């Protein structure tokens, strides 16, 4: 059931993860990220997504600590950055993340990008971290079908999550089907197309019908696709708005109308061709 902010899915290793989380990409460390995460936690968000490269793990950790919410009630995600993969520093990078976050474990640790020649080796280290219990689940981010197939061919632990750019202009049905068939949970980053979602007439029309914002329509679309979503905002009103997606349901026709907007258009980098 996806009917409230506490609704969760069960990952392929049995771990429960909320359908709606809070992302902190491009939110500055210090007061800005602390205030944003604090607001989100007060509203009832229990999944927080950060990454080493965001540079705000310290602020995220402080906000969690100061919230008074038991650590086991918060689902915390972070990610290993590309340079750490290239330098064979995955284990050291993970330990540094724990220190910055001021926690003994994370709920989910992800490979941030599929760095050519590195990610298979990185995955082996991720497995050791998982077996140590210091990451309750491990997964990947920005992995296309060939990358996922490489990991599966290692005959090892199947990633619990694939976090991808996912929105009505980039539906990626082949990737979605592959993940579903292999029990890899899809998770959407940039679900609101970096703000461009407000300019899409089809989304605007559906939003008017439900008396919702275009953002709320697309976040609901994510959930009905069985895709976890982690919108980010430092704006308290938007943080609240993004939670108000559990009191309506899109029809099959509306889902298909939104799917039909697919242009294979990315607002972020292409996982098949990036240079950072």
Notes on the protein architecture:
Keywords: NADP, Oxidoreductase. GO terms for molecular function: oxidoreductase activity, acting on the CH-OH group of donors, NAD or NADP as acceptor. This is Aldo/keto reductase. Strands 3-4-5-6-7-8-9-10 form an eight-stranded parallel sheet. The model has no long low-confidence stretch (mean pLDDT 97). Helices cover 38% and strands 15% of the residues. The protein is of the alpha/beta class and 276 residues long. It has one domain: NADP-dependent oxidoreductase domain (TIM Barrel).
Which tags fit this structure?
Aldo/ket_reductase_CS; oxidoreductase; two-stranded antiparallel sheet; 15% strand; NAD(P)_OxRdtase_dom_sf; alpha/beta; globular; 276 residues; TIM Barrel; eight-stranded parallel beta sheet; Aldo/keto reductase
In short, what is this structure?
38% of the residues lie in helices and 15% in strands.
CATH topology, which one? TIM Barrel
Give me the CATH superfamily. NADP-dependent oxidoreductase domain
Strand order, sheet with most strands? 3-4-5-6-7-8-9-10
Low-confidence stretches: none
Strand content: 15-25%
Strand count, sense and closure of the main sheet?
8 strands, parallel
How many strand units? 10
What is the mean pLDDT?
97
> CATH class, please?
Alpha Beta
**Which of globular, elongated, flat, extended, rod-shaped describes the shape?**
globular
Q: How many distinct helices?
A: 11
Q: In terms of structural class, how would the helical and strand content be classed?
A: alpha/beta
Provide the domain count: 1
């Amino acid at each position: 059931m996806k009917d409230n902010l506490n609704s969760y899915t069960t990952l392929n290793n049995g771990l429960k993860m909320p359908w709606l989380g809070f992302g902190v990409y491009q939110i500055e460390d210090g007061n800005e990220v602390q205030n944003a995460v604090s607001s989100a936690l007060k509203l009832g968000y229990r999944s927080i997504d950060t990454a080493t490269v965001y540079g705000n793990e310290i602020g995220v950790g402080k906000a969690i600590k100061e919230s008074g919410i038991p650590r086991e009630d918060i689902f915390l995600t972070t990610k290993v950055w590309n340079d750490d993969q290239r330098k064979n520093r995955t284990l050291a990078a993970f330990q540094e993340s724990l220190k910055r976050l001021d926690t003994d474990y994370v709920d989910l640790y992800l490979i941030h990008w599929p760095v050519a020649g590195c990610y298979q080796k990185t995955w082996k280290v991720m497995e050791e971290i998982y077996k140590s219990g210091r990451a309750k689940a491990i997964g990947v981010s920005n992995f296309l079908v060939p990358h996922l197939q490489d990991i599966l061919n290692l005959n090892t632990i199947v990633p619990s999550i694939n976090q991808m750019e996912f929105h009505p202009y980039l539906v990626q049905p082949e990737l979605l089907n592959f993940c579903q068939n292999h029990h890899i949970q899809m998770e959407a980053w940039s679900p609101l197309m970096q703000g461009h979602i407000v300019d899409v007439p089809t989304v605007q029309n559906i939003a008017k019908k439900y008396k919702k914002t275009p953002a709320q329509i697309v976040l609901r679309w994510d959930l009905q696709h069985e895709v976890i979503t982690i919108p980010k905002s430092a704006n308290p009103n938007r943080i609240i708005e993004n939670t108000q997606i559990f009191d309506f349901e899109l029809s099959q026709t509306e889902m298909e109308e939104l799917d039909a907007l697919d242009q294979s258009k990315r607002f972020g980098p292409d996982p098949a061709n990036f240079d950072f």
